[in-house]
């Protein structure tokens, strides 16, 4: 029981750290693409050190590495779009729209798995669209940020579905290691052509980048996987759904003037988050019934 309680506390701390990502993205005064390069590269170095010390690194086949590198590029695109969305709108708008990732996963996953879409997934989709519609109608001045955040959510759903397939074939640490390598490498190539690598990075930005890369990316990822040894996937999934709530509360506390939104925004966001919680609980209930029938 103590072990479960300890891991539950670690999980919520990890989700809280994940929730701080948007705050750091706003605090770092660098273009989104350069920010993502440093985030991925720092995370890659941190994972490399961790993997070397604890002997976690494994040599993979060329095919497997290419698959992970492809997913890493998708991850980089997702993060660039997300941080750009935050910078052209607000943190609250960015994370609220990112909550729609569950909708895109519900639509994309059946296509990848070649199965029929469940009625629950259609219900989730309709509810999420209602929430998004309310947010867009009351915060139309942030339409560009909303659009970029939606694109980011779509890319996030793609790499989530692909990673759900990869995790059945190899361990999560090596997935993260190779994906961060590919993400940082692809953005480096892009920046090299644009000449943005010469952009001056202030000491304060370096401090935020180290927190983002080491604590909010490498450490948070490893810990979120580690707790799954004790906690159920349902508990982990339900807790991760709290990330937008943590981020919006943090944004209101840190940037009260910029992040205070209209009542309609919070109603739309609440519909989004509530839909995800209900969907998670319904999936848990369905899984429990299927297990009982199997027995």
Tell me the fraction of residues in β-strands, as a range. Answer: under 5%
Averaged pLDDT, please?
A: 86
Low-confidence stretches: none
Largest sheet: none
- Number of separate structural domains: 1
* Tally of helical runs: 14
| Helix content, binned percent | over 70%
C-alpha geometry? globular
Structural class: mainly alpha
Extended strand count: 0
User: What string gives the helices and strands in order?
Assistant: HHHHHHHHHHHHHH
Intertermini distance = 27 Å
From the alpha carbons, calculate the radius of gyration and give it in angstroms: 19 Å
Which oligomeric state applies? single chain
Q: Can you walk through the features of this model?
A:
Helices cover 82% and strands 0% of the residues. It has one domain (2-294). 40% of the residues are buried. The longest helix has 32 residues, at 263-294. With 295 residues, the protein is mainly α. The radius of gyration is 19 Å and the shape is globular.
How are the elements arranged and paired?
Elements lengths: L1 H18 L1 H7 L4 H22 L8 H27 L2 H8 L2 H13 L5 H20 L4 H24 L5 H23 L8 H24 L6 H8 L2 H12 L1 H4 L3 H32 L1
Helix pairs in contact: 1-10, 1-12, 2-10, 3-4, 3-9, 3-10, 4-5, 4-8, 4-9, 5-8, 5-12, 6-7, 6-8, 7-14
Q: Which labels suit this protein?
A:
295 residues; mainly alpha; 14 helices; globular
């Amino acid at each position: 029981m103590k072990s479960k309680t300890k891991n539950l506390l670690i999980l919520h701390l990890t989700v809280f750290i994940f929730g701080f990502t948007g705050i750091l993205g706003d605090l770092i005064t660098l273009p989104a693409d350069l920010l993502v390069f440093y985030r991925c590269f720092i995370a890659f170095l941190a994972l490399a050190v961790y993997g070397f010390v604890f002997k976690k690194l494994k040599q993979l086949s060329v095919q497997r590495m290419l698959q992970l590198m492809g997913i890493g590029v998708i991850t980089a695109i997702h993060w660039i779009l997300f941080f750009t969305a935050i910078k052209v709108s607000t943190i609250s708008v960015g994370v609220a729209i990112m909550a729609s990732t569950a909708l895109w996963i519900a639509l994309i996953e059946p296509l990848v798995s070649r199965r029929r879409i469940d009625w629950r997934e259609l219900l989730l989709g309709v509810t999420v669209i209602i929430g998004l519609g309310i947010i867009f109608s009351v915060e139309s001045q942030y339409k560009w940020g909303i659009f970029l955040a939606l694109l980011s959510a779509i890319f996030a759903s793609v790499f989530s579905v692909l990673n759900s397939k990869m995790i059945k074939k190899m361990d999560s640490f090596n997935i993260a290691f190779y994906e961060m390598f590919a993400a940082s490498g692809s953005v480096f190539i892009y920046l090299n052509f644009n000449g943005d690598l010469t952009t001056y990075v202030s000491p304060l930005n370096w401090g935020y980048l180290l927190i983002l890369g080491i604590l909010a990316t490498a450490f948070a990822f490893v810990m979120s996987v580690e707790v799954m040894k004790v906690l159920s996937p349902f508990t982990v999934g339900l807790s991760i759904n709290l990330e937008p709530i943590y981020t919006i509360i943090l944004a209101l506390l840190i940037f009260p003037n910029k992040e205070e939104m209209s009542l309609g925004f919070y109603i739309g966001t609440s519909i989004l988050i509530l839909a995800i919680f209900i969907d998670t609980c319904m999936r848990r209930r369905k899984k429990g019934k299927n297990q009982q029938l199997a027995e």
